[in-house]
Design a protein that fits this description.
- The chain is of the alpha+beta class and 807 residues long.
- It has 25 helices and 28 strands.
- The strands form five sheets. Strands 17, 18, 19, 20, 21, 22 and 23 form a seven-stranded mixed beta sheet that branches. A six-stranded antiparallel beta sheet has the order 3-2-1-6-5-4. Strands 8-7-11-10-9 form a five-stranded antiparallel beta sheet, with helices on both faces.
- 30% of the residues are buried.
């Protein structure tokens, strides 16, 4: 752009030179309005004679563009704008202005390039202007150009005057004068300071002044002074002086000859400046520039300096490797390599860096010279000038095409992994269901047979073998499911207050039979200071304790197993529970201890063949204890037994819930004998098994094969509790439960419905409860758990009926 804001300011001034010019143009053409328009990169600034102050509009919306695009000296004539395809849809034509007549001449700046237009306008259709009128318009246009030239000349003059003022005020510049006849020297205060001497103690003349200069420079300066006195020519030199304090300084002196009326030299005068620090800075800047240029020209990243309008001042050679363009191709064209759809984002990022002064980062597409797309990451940093204003930014451009590709591949791999995890989870859930369903019959019927007094000894032994094997298989299934949930972070703790004694007695009772079978002693030692009630996930704590106990029994051939439970209070009021299980078994070599808590690991491969197991129990135990915020470990030596222990912080105290024991449930307290139970299950073996168990408890039971039959049975009969399978034909258990709850809504009656299913995953249990079920029992059926749940829910249901009757 060949004009400055000074021209814009003159245009804005209602009393300025353009005011009279537009008045004259409108009068000569007998038009309603005349306009001078100056175009900036983004705006059109307008001065009109129609009583308006300067207006500003978007550059692309200005009619002046039409004539400026025609070039210097052009004149555009449109006598009827309503039929001219170039302007008929313009808002000045279709809007309130109703522009009809438009004549404009190109307005050029001092460099001869178009910068706007002088236009005459009318809301009437007028005849074409005559050749004389066109000449007059061009004459007025020339006058406008002269005004702009004058404004620009005044601006240059003002800038030079300001520069001279700054030079005169420049710190550190002194002046001097040398008389030819007397060799007397006059120094300003700054010259004294530079030489390091005091005006009161030093009287300068040519001889003692030359003494300050180092050898070589002294003779050189004397020669230049003599030559200047003889020829009248001045000199400019950089010299080295040695001050009285021993400090060397580099100075610059500029001298001119002073002549009398005859042209004879009568004196030399000039300015004198200490440039020591300046030269150091310049030398350092040159070294830094050389290093930075070496870095910029050899780094893989592209480095460029960009002005606010998007044009570049410098771009490093790496642009050719990145995009195929040479430095010469890209000189001044910083936006050309940017994908057209991303250019607005790039401009916004650069303007943000300029306005905030903070680094800005942007990823966008760039265009390779061969037409391909390259993804780049740009970092923008504003460069602040000496005046504290930021007018350009440094942009570092890095190729991130490979990173984008890797990100895409990573996203794809992540999606595949998540899909695989979902497939694995679904597979494990299905396999768990398919395995638990037949195990329900195996474990249940073997349990019933074990309670039979008519079973011969040999057959009882066979049944015990079946029960042991099926329980072991169930343990394997539970381990695999637990570990898969731990891997997926799918296990959450369920902390509730629990009786410490009940937890210990329950775990010991489960393992006691195994100890008796192998002839091992079982000893339980409980610290007397143990709180009676702690709050935590008792089920998971029991799971880890039983893992320790069952492993101790498995790997101990003689002797015994000791369970120790204790701990100590912590500073925050919690109790740090410590559980340790010690055995007299085969022990563990020190080098094998580290791998014990890893998945699928045992101390020796031979132990898997000899003792069995998945190698998951200790890995699961470690993860559970870590989730609780505790730690786990083992102390052992080969052949001397082992002590497995864990410690975890638990809150003390809490209100115990009503937990019916298995014995209480088996006795069916509270006169619940004879309660009617409805069971829905599509497996005949499961219906037969549960029927046998419940009739043994003194309960009445009806069975149906699917959810639809369960809904029908609930319509025709009064049942005290429903046992509902989930996976069934015709109608599944979830749909059946929702339908039963719909039927009972508003009746004041809510029959307890318990899920009895092989679906044991946490999300599957949640779906059962969300459908309206009251509890969940897992297959294979455990008689104590089934009896306990029935005892609790039948008792609650009975209490509810009593309250309803009393009401």
């Amino acid at each position: 752009m060949s004009f400055t804001t000074k021209s814009i300011e003159a245009l804005d001034n209602p009393a300025g030179p353009f005011h009279r010019l537009v008045d004259m143009a409108a009068m000569l053409f007998d038009c309603r309005a005349a306009v001078v328009t100056l175009l900036t990169p983004t705006e059109a600034v307008i001065r009109s004679n129609a009583g308006l102050c300067a207006e500003r509009t978007d550059r692309s919306n200005s009619l002046a563009l039409l004539v400026t695009e025609m070039g210097p000296g052009a004149v555009l004539v449109i006598t009827d704008t309503t039929v001219d395809p170039r302007v008929k849809d313009h808002e000045l034509v279709t809007g309130p202005s109703q522009l009809k007549f438009y004549v404009a001449a190109t307005l050029c700046g001092p460099d001869g390039k178009p910068i706007g237009a002088l236009s005459v306008l009318d809301d009437r259709v007028l005849p074409p202007p005559s050749e004389q009128m066109i000449k007059q318009l061009k004459l007025l246009t020339g006058m406008a150009e002269d005004i702009i030239d004058g404004i620009e000349a005044a601006r240059i003059r003002d800038e030079r005057l300001e520069t001279l003022k700054l030079v005169e005020q420049m710190s550190g510049v002194g002046h001097w004068r040398l008389e030819r006849e007397t060799n007397l020297v006059e120094w300003s205060d700054e010259v004294y300071r530079i030489h390091g001497v005091d005006r009161d103690r030093f009287d300068p003349n040519l001889d003692n002044a030359l003494e300050f200069y180092v050898e070589g420079d002294r003779e050189r300066l004397a020669g230049m002074i003599q030559s200047g006195m003889e020829t009248g020519e001045g000199y400019l030199a950089k010299l080295q002086i040695l001050r009285p304090d021993g400090e060397e300084r580099r100075v610059e002196t500029h001298a001119e000859a002073e002549l009398d009326e005859t042209g004879r030299v009568i004196a030399m005068f000039g300015v004198f400046q200490d440039v020591t620090e300046r030269d150091k800075v310049l030398a350092r800047a040159r070294r830094d520039e050389a290093r930075y240029r070496l870095l910029a020209e050899n780094t893989g990243d592209v480095i460029t300096r960009v002005r606010a309008d998007g044009s570049s001042k410098y771009i490093s050679p790496a642009i050719q490797h990145l995009l195929g363009w040479t430095q010469e191709d890209m000189n001044g064209q910083a936006l050309d390599y940017i994908h057209p759809e991303d250019r607005s984002l790039v401009m916004a990022a650069g303007l943000e860096a300029l306005s905030t002064g903070l680094p800005t980062r942007l990823q966008h597409r760039a265009m390779h010279k061969d037409g391909s797309i390259v993804w780049v990451e740009c970092t923008y940093k504003a460069l602040v000038g000496a005046d504290g204003k930021a007018r350009e930014v440094v942009v570092v451009i890095r190729d991130m095409t490979d990173r984008k590709r890797l990100d895409a591949e990573l996203t794809e791999a992540k999606e595949k992994a998540e899909a695989a995890a979902r497939v694995k989870s679904e597979f494990l859930a299905n396999m768990s269901h398919e395995l638990r369903t037949p195990l329900t019959s195996v474990i249940g019927f073997s349990g019933l047979l074990q309670t039979s007094e008519a079973l011969p000894a040999q057959e009882r032994l066979y049944v015990e073998r079946i029960a042991t094997a099926s329980e072991a298989l169930l343990g394997v299934i539970n381990d695999i499911l637990d570990y898969s949930k731990l891997e997926a972070n799918g296990i959450e703790m369920d902390p509730e207050p629990f009786s410490v004694a009940a937890l210990i007695d329950g775990a010991a009772a489960i393992i006691e039979g195994q100890c008796e079978t192998k002839g091992l002693s079982l000893k339980v030692v409980v610290d007397a200071a143990m709180p009676e009630v702690l709050t935590g996930d008792a089920g998971r704590l029991r799971q880890v304790m039983l893992n320790f106990l069952s492993n101790a029994v498995k790997f101990t051939g003689k002797g015994g197993v000791t369970l120790r439970v204790g701990g100590a209070p912590e500073a925050d009021g919690r109790w740090r529970l410590r559980v340790a299980v010690t055995d007299t078994g085969i022990g563990i070599p020190p080098e094998k201890v580290e791998v014990l808590f890893e998945r699928f690991s045992q101390a020796d491969a031979s132990t898997t063949r000899l003792y069995g197991g998945t190698g998951l129990g200790l890995a699961i135990s470690r993860r559970l204890i870590e989730i609780m915020g505790g730690e786990i470990g083992v102390d052992s030596r080969s052949g001397e037994g082992a002590t497995f222990w864990f410690e975890t912080p638990l809150a003390q105290g809490g209100a115990l819930g009503r937990l019916a024991s298995a014995d209480d449930a088996l006795a069916t307290p509270g006169g619940l004998s004879g309660a009617r139970i409805l069971m829905a299950d599509d497996a005949p073996g499961n219906r037969e098994l549960v029927s046998a168990i419940l009739r043994g408890l003194g309960l009445e039971i009806d069975t149906v094969c699917d959810g639809a039959e369960a809904v029908q049975a609930m319509q025709g009969g009064a049942y005290d509790l429903v046992l509902m399978d989930v996976h069934m034909p015709v109608m599944d258990g979830l749909a059946a439960t929702r339908e039963i709850r719909r039927m009972q809504a508003g009746t004041g009656r809510r029959t307890p419905i318990l899920a009895l299913t092989a679906n044991v995953q946490a999300d599957q249990v949640s779906r059962c409860l969300d459908a309206g079920m009251d509890g969940h029992l897992a297959k294979p059926v455990q008689i104590p758990e089934l009896a306990g749940a029935l005892g609790r829910w039948l008792a609650d249901a009975g209490a509810g009926r009593d309250e309803a009757l009393a009401g």
